[in-house]
Structure formats: structure tokens, C-alpha cells
Amino acid sequence: MKNTLRNIFHSPKFVIGFVIFFGLLLFTFIYPWFVMADPLEMVGQGNFFKPGTYVSVKDTVDSKYYTLNIQAKSANLGDHIEDKDKADMRDWLVNYGGVSQEEMDAADDNTLVALWLEHYDSKAKQKGLLASKKKAFVRLDKEIQKLASDADMIIAQENEDGELEETASVDSQQYVNTRDISNKRTFVLGTDNFGRDVLTELVQATKVSLKIGLIAGTVATLIGLLLGLLSGYIGGVFDDVIIFITNLFTVIPSFVLLILITYSVGQNARGVTLIATVIGATSWTWTCRSVRSQVISLRNRDHVNLSKLSGHSMMRIVLTDILPYVASYVVMAFILQISSGILAEAQLSMLGLGPSTTTTATLGQMMNWATLYAAHLNGSWWAYFPVVFVITIIAFSLNLMNTGLDQVFNPQLRD
């Protein structure tokens, strides 16, 4: 055993995969120690807030001001304009502002704002535009003019007569120190469609998906191992029956069968454990066939025949004389079953058939929510790309570990 473990950890592919997977697993357990917020807490009153640090506007007004010789105007005014508004600006400039399509295609955000300030005229002929759209362009122009202006901002409060009275003004060179602001929150990966912190939700979803993969892999491996050992060792009619059932499950696509089962149990009954168990119960066939083929090649070996002649029971022969020789294949099958279980859950959740729960999330559910609320269409990459990346990393690390084990235990693949 010691020599086997040494050989395993001398495999570069296994070590790389193990480090990646263990590092991700460690992060999912350490992160909640520092961030104890509820993963499904709706901290934002809106959809898809961009990554960054958010501070209280009220605190900035009430804080002490510091005057710095730094121009407050953004180097890129386009950062403050929504993508949809940019697209509308481009259409207006081409259709009504006299700007050529070639010039517009080559324009970046700063050039776009400059062209807008130069060419936009609310009194220009805008044939075909609805009145509401014209008013929207007027409001957009006022916002852009305000962004491009260095004018002081007036702070007013109601006086005793209920009228607004100027109390202070803020110019473009006045700043506040963020350490003076107590109410601030950093969203490394922004918020999702429900206004929830994506990073906190992603960490919890990774833990749940790993749990699903572990349960599914355990169920599938145990079923496949048990049937494979019995089928390969006993043979005869028993083997024919098991092979018939295995072939039947093989002919019927496992994912279609998985969809039918999860749909039939109903939404209220689809918990994390049930979904993981169903995934495992529909993905054991190739493990069974692999173990069976190995057992058939072992059951007539000399040490097995010697155990038979010694009067040992079938259970002892299988557990002591056969199972140790197929253990490496079982471990590799288990690793692949974990990866397959995670991917299967993600596919089910994308179809709306994943775990039905309001207390936690899975990687597949996060992808489903991002798709339903069109995150990929409105440029909210932080709602889906980190999820895809985590799923990819998990599958990549597990498959890398399996490849490393295969090189260790398969003589034909050794260097």
C-alpha cells in the first residue's frame, strides 16, 4: 500500500489534478469562516449589479471632504453608460446625426460620447421615432452632459418652512476616504438576478454540487461493483440476467431515464439527496461491465482456485482474492462517477428539473437562473462565467486524477 501511494503521488497528472481539486474543496470550507452571510440573502434591490465595492451615498455626503488635485471626471465616460444606451446612441448618430457607419464602427466609448456631444440635437428631425423614445434620448443627453460637466453639485435640505435650502456644494476635486465610510460592501463577482452575492452563493453551490457528485458516485459505484462482482464470479443464468438488465439500461439513454424519473417524483420531492441518488441509480452500467470483465479474467486464477479448494466461502473469495485486484479500477470509476454526477445535475437544473430547494443552490441552478434572466444577453458575465469555470475546473481536475491513476495501474500506459 505504501509503495502504491508513492507511485500515485509520483504521477504528475494525478498530483496536478489532486492539488486543483483539493484546493477548490479547501476554499469552499474556509470561505464561510470569513464570510458568514446567508448565501441566498438578497442584498441588492435589482438585477445583476456589477462587481466592485459599493458604499453608502448618504455616508459620502456626511463624511469629511478632502481636496485633491485629481480630476474627478472619469477617464472613460462610457463606463457610466449602460450598454443598451450605447447601442441606442450609435443608432441615433447613424440615422439622425449624420455620422457614417464606418466612423461609428471604429469609435470607442470615449469617441462615442464625443460624437454624441457634438452631433446630438433634440430638435433634429427624427422621423420614425416614438415620442417616448425622443424623450428618452433627451434624458440620456442630460445625463451625459452632467457626466461631462465639472460643475459643482449642490446639496440641499429642507428648512423650517419646508423649502429646499442649499447647505453645501461639492466640486470635482473633493474626495472622501473610504475608511471614513462604515456602510460599504464588496461584491467580488457582483450580484445575480435576485440581488444575491454571486461569490458567496457560488461557494455554497460548489459544496452542494460536490455533495451531489459524491453521493451519486458512491451509489453508482456500489451498484456497479456489487453487480459486476456477482455477475463475473457466479456466471451462468445469474450473469445472463444481470447482463440483460445492464444492456437494457445501456440501450435506454441514461439522461432520458433520469429526466423521466426526476419529473415523475414531483417538484416538492426533488431534494438534493434524492436527485443525487437518482443520478447514481441511472449511471452504474459501465462500472458494472468493467468490473465484470475484470472478475471473469480473475475467477480462474490459481490463487482463486486454491481458495475454492480450501473450502472458503464465496463472500470471502470475492472480498479477499478478487476485490483487491479490481480496487484500482473501482477507484478510477468512482472518480469519474463524481464528475459525471456533477455534470448530470447541472444538465437537469438547466432543464428546470434539478433540486427544488429555497435554502441552498447548486451550480446547475445558478446557470439556470442566469439563463432565465438573460444574463448572457445583457453582458452580466459574472452571473454565469464563474459557474462554468468552476464546473470546468472540477471536471478537469477529476479527469486529470483519473488519467494519472490509469498511468500508474495500467502497465501499457507506463513510460
Please write out the topology.
Layout: H1 2-8, H2 12-34, E1 52-55, H3 57-62, E2 66-67, H4 83-95, H5 101-105, H6 109-119, H7 131-148, E3 153-158, E4 164-170, E5 174-175, E6 184-187, H8 198-234, H9 236-251, H10 254-265, H11 272-281, H12 285-298, H13 302-309, H14 314-350, H15 363-372, H16 385-409
Antiparallel strand pairs: 1-6, 2-5, 3-4
Helix pairs in contact: 2-8, 2-16, 4-6, 8-9, 8-11, 8-12, 8-14, 8-15, 9-12, 11-14, 12-14, 13-14, 14-15, 14-16, 15-16
Give a brief outline of the structure.
This protein has 415 residues and is mainly alpha-helical.
CATH class of the largest domain: Mainly Alpha
| SS content category | mainly alpha
Q: So, the CATH homologous superfamily of the largest domain?
A: MetI-like
Helix and strand succession? HHEHEHHHHEEEEHHHHHHHHH
Radius of gyration: 31 Å
Oligomer classification: single chain
Low-confidence stretches: none
Structure write-up:
Helix content is 61%, strand content 6%. It is mainly alpha-helical and 415 residues long. It has two domains: 258 residues, Orthogonal Bundle (MetI-like fold); 77 residues, no CATH class. The strands form three sheets. A two-stranded antiparallel ribbon has the order 1-6. A two-stranded antiparallel ribbon has the order 2-5. A hairpin with a 5-residue loop joins β3 and β4. α12 packs antiparallel against α14 and α13 packs across α14. The longest helix is centred in the middle third of the chain and has 37 residues. The relative contact order is 0.14. The mean pLDDT is 83.
